[in-house]
């Protein structure tokens, strides 16, 4: 029989055990081994059955066991120690508190998904895992962050396989009362709510659930409340589910409702109000509109409010392709804003203008969330050096007239939260070398370029560690594979072969990630005969563990999964290659440490960063990857291999896959497997062990989320907070009026004449060290010298006279304008490099409150006639 109503019955903990409830509700347990060990000791069998979730565990422990623990003095001493440690962690000064006082009072961090722990399944892949690691690292560093997201009642989805290997999706209902969450309440005990106005006089209401991620509160909005109609209740049903309007409502709730939730949380708790708002991808971009509306309600006009909001906003883009950006029909967006819907005091035309693709090739009828995010943020970044370059190129149309490398998008390379992803055995090995506290600091705060202590660990210990982790993975894989085959309909009698799947002494390769086509799940199957030879080699075999989910609407991705599963089902290779369904955090935490090689073969440059290889590296697993994302930035032959790419413009996609797959097989056959299996004088693979050592000592400190968050604080959050403080109502109004004046006057800004004065220089040749005197006549129209900067831009030139690796030198105005209103600027240009050299002159807007001279997207240069008359200097 089916229950007509479901609710959660919570245990009543005896008074001595009350601290267990606080420990269970603070998600620090997900990365703090002592807290997890304490919960395991409550009831080891139920701990395993609960999925290692303290809240579920405490809901299942019999009262008699709790009563016994309440009188167990040894357990109570451990409980007091762990609870005291959490108190110290929550209240003590950390890295952030030791920094200068100019840092932000608080930062609000918005993301559509957060991967904190498998016990809170609110993530689909890398974006969410990164967001979770960002919150954890901020907590460890003491950064006063407030996380903001949505609470999805079905999460993403659970994945199983049909008998013929087709992906099946399942959407179990999540009860917030059974999750490590508490409801944010008003002083009278009623649930705190936010509400959005919808067309037709309707409302979308949402409760605010609080997940405590160490020191960081994570606010999660839930539309499944009784006051909503059925359609509105389903807005937060699934992560990345539903149609276009459903997605728009999710993003309005995340951005607009999220700002209102932050204001409510700060009002109820006294938490400092955020000075900086950080949007992780464009999904939360509407937060800027809500903040503009707040300022307009306080008496500001739209343009001044826009400048104030931009000054304190950071936007991070994660996609290297336009297809990865959310775009909505303009009419749909227009219907949800204005007098009869949300933000009624803001002109709908102003809203639409923020998201318009006004650049060449843009689609005028679509509203682009990333474009809005960039226009509403004074600071923006990609997530690796390579992705920063790709992003500047991709969005360069928003800054016409500027070279891509001058587009104001920087990069902060992603990192991973080491305490979450490092296997306990790896941590213990490090702690034996340098002590527990120093090991914890190395993994959280970072700051060192090297972990030199790794050099002192004996080869034997490293090799025994790696084999032990591989053996754990073999056990895990067999358990998961047996469960998967039972779900596919196999009986116990059919599954005896699983006991022989994988071998703890065989080179183990891991490949696990989402399954969009560009990640090329099946590249390894390109030449099946060569792959079989690798898997079944008599002396140097390899084994491969694969996992990954295709998006429910992506049949192409599902076909890739099925293709790989069918190959893995072949009795000839099924002991050497396995596909594990339902890839998630719990599986990943076993998979990364247990592999020897982490394989990554996306189409370059379509991976923005990729962090799975970072997690593997922290456990001594070597990377075998295309030079994309973070690997392009940090690859060295000392600690991994680079798969050559054939990413020329004219390469046929099939031909490219053939070339790159062949390169992958060559690397495995000729370099990787011999290195793993060859033995030195000690009987150990000493050259392989040295690569593991280099991975840990050189890559380890780089890939930390602690390093990443410190970079955000120093390079983006603090400048944004300072800009926010300087952008009071008067300054914001001044900047808005100045921008309007500059835009109106810019057609009259011209470079009219350029003179060069230098002795002993021919028209096309000069000596290194020569200094050129420049005299430039410019027209500024209705602007003055205080409104602009006149620059000479110089550097080496290519065959088409394009300046590369440019140096910029400002010129200074001389005297007053002439009778024709023209100004004269002068300056010196030093010829400090040899070879083909050139220069040009340009004029840019200049104001003390701009974060970048490219901010307005305005630039004036010499006319074509002037360029042709001047020729190219010193070609």
UniProtKB/TrEMBL annotation:
SUPFAM superfamilies (alphabetical): UDP-Glycosyltransferase/glycogen phosphorylase (SSF53756)
Co-factor(s): pyridoxal 5'-phosphate
Residue span(s) of domain DUF3417: 13-120
Keywords: Allosteric enzyme, Carbohydrate metabolism, Glycosyltransferase, Pyridoxal phosphate, Transferase
CDD domains in the record: GT35_Glycogen_Phosphorylase-like
Catalytic activity: [(1->4)-alpha-D-glucosyl](n) + phosphate = [(1->4)-alpha-D-glucosyl](n-1) + alpha-D-glucose 1-phosphate
InterPro entries documented for this protein: Agluc_phsphrylas (IPR011834), Glyco_trans_35 (IPR000811), Glycogen/Maltodextrin_Phosph (IPR052182), Glycogen_phosphorylase_DUF3417 (IPR024517), Pyridoxal_P_attach_site (IPR035090)
Gene3D superfamilies recorded: Glycogen Phosphorylase B
A Pfam entry, by short name: Phosphorylase
Assigned EC number: 2.4.1.1
EC category name: transferase
Function: Phosphorylase is an important allosteric enzyme in carbohydrate metabolism. Enzymes from different sources differ in their regulatory mechanisms and in their natural substrates. However, all known phosphorylases share catalytic and structural properties.
Family: Belongs to the glycogen phosphorylase family.
Protein name as catalogued: glycogen phosphorylase
Lineage: Bacteria, Bacillati, Actinomycetota, Actinomycetes, Kitasatosporales
């Amino acid at each position: 029989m089916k229950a007509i109503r479901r609710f959660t019955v919570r245990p009543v903990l005896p008074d001595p055990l009350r601290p267990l409830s606080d420990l269970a509700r603070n998600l620090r347990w997900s990365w703090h081994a002592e807290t997890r060990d304490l919960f395991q000791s409550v009831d080891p069998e139920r701990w395993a059955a609960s999925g290692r979730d303290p809240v579920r565990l405490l809901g299942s422990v019999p009262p008699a066991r709790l009563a016994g623990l309440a009188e167990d003095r040894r357990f109570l001493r451990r409980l007091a120690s762990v609870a005291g440690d959490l108190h110290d962690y929550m209240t003590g000064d950390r890295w952030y508190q030791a920094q200068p006082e100019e840092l932000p009072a608080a930062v609000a961090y918005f993301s559509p998904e957060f991967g904190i722990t498998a016990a809170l399944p609110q993530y689909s892949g890398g974006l969410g895992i990164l967001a979770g690691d960002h919150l954890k690292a901020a907590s460890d560093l003491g950064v006063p962050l407030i996380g903001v997201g949505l609470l999805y009642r079905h999460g993403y989805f659970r994945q199983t396989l049909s008998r013929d290997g087709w992906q099946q999706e399942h959407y179990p209902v999540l009860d917030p009362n059974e999750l490590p969450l508490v409801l944010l309440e008003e002083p009278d005990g009623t649930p705190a709510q936010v509400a959005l106005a919808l067309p037709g006089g309707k409302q979308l209401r949402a409760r605010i659930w609080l997940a405590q991620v160490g020191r960081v509160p994570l606010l999660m909005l839930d539309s499944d409340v009784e006051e909503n109609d059925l359609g509105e209740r389903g807005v937060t049903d699934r992560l990345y589910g539903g149609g276009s309007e459903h997605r728009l409502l999710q993003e309005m709730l995340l951005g607009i409702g999220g700002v209102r939730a932050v204001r409510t949380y700060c009002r109820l708790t006294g938490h400092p109000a955020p000075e900086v708002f950080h949007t992780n991808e464009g999904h939360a971009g509407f937060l800027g509109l809500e903040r503009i509306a707040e300022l307009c309600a306080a008496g500001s006009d739209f343009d001044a409010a826009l400048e104030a909001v931009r000054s304190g906003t950071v936007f991070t883009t994660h996609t290297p392709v336009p297809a990865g950006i959310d775009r909505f029909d303009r009419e749909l967006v227009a219907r949800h804003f204005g007098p009869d819907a949300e933000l009624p005091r803001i002109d709908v035309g102003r809203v639409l203008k923020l998201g318009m693709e006004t650049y060449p090739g843009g689609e005028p009828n679509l509203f682009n969330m990333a474009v809005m995010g960039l226009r509403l943020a004074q600071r923006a970044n990609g997530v690796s050096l390579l992705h920063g370059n790709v992003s500047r190129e991709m969005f360069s149309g928003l800054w016409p007239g500027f070279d891509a490398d001058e587009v104001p998008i920087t990069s902060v390379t992603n990192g991973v939260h080491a305490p979450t992803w490092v296997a306990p055995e790896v941590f213990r090995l490090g702690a034996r070398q340098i002590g527990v506290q120093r090991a914890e600091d190395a993994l959280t705060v970072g700051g060192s370029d090297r972990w030199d202590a790794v050099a002192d660990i004996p080869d034997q210990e490293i090799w025994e560690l790696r084999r032990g982790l591989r053996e754990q993975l073999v056990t895990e894989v067999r358990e998961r594979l047996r469960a998967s085959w039972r779900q596919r309909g196999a009986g116990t009698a059919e599954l005896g072969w699983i006991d022989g799947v994988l071998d703890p002494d065989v080179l183990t390769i891991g490949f696990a990630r989402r399954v969009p086509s560009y990640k090329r799940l099946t590249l390894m199957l390109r030449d099946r005969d060569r792959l079989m030879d690798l898997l079944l080699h008599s002396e140097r075999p390899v084994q491969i563990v694969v996992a990954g989910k295709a998006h429910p609407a992506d049949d192409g991705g599902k076909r890739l999964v099925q293709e790989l599963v069918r190959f893995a089902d072949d009795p000839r290779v099924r002991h050497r290659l396995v596909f594990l369904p339902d890839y998630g955090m719990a599986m990943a935490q076993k998979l990364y440490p247990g592999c020897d090689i982490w394989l990554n073969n996306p189409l370059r440059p379509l991976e923005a960063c990729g962090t799975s290889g970072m997690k593997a590296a922290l456990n001594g697993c070597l990377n075998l990857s295309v030079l994309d994302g973070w690997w392009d930035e940090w690859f060295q032959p000392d600690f991994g291999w680079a798969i050559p790419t054939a990413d020329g413009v004219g390469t046929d996609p099939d031909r490219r896959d053939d070339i790159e797959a062949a390169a992958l097989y060559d690397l495995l056959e000729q370099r990787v497997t011999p290195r793993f299996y060859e033995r030195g004088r000690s009987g150990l693979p000493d050259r392989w062990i040295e690569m593991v050592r280099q991975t840990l000592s050189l890559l380890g400190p780089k890939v930390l989320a602690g390093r990443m968050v410190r970079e955000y604080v120093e390079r983006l959050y603090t400048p944004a907070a300072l800009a926010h403080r300087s952008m009071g109502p008067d300054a914001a109004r001044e900047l808005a009026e100045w921008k309007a004046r500059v835009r109106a006057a810019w057609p009259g800004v011209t470079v009219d004449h350029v003179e060069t004065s230098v002795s002993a220089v021919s028209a096309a040749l000069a000596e290194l060290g020569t200094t050129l005197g420049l005299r430039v006549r410019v027209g500024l129209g209705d602007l003055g010298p205080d409104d602009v900067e006149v620059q000479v831009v110089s550097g080496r030139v290519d065959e088409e006279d394009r300046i590369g690796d440019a140096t910029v030198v400002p010129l200074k105005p001389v005297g007053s304008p002439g009778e024709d209103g023209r100004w004269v600027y002068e300056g010196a240009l030093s010829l400090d490099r040899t070879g083909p050299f050139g220069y040009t002159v340009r004029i840019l807007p200049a104001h003390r409150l701009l974060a970048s001279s490219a901010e307005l997207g305005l630039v004036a240069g010499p006319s074509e006639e002037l360029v042709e008359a001047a020729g190219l200097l010193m070609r």
